[in-house]
Sequence to fold (51 residues):
Amino acid sequence: MQIPDVVYQLFIAILYKNIIIIFMYEHFFSWMIMLFNFAGQSYSAGYEKRG
Fold:
């Protein structure tokens, strides 16, 4: 079975776009987690100093 070139290119384009979106989302979530960890650490450090 011969796959048409257009379908192949469309498949590649969709796959590529999804990979980029997933990559961006993973970076976004890891940044959010890092931010929350940093905020939690600084908050607990300040809390210990106050207490």
User: Anything to note?
Assistant: The mean pLDDT is 85. The two ends are 73 Å apart (CA to CA).
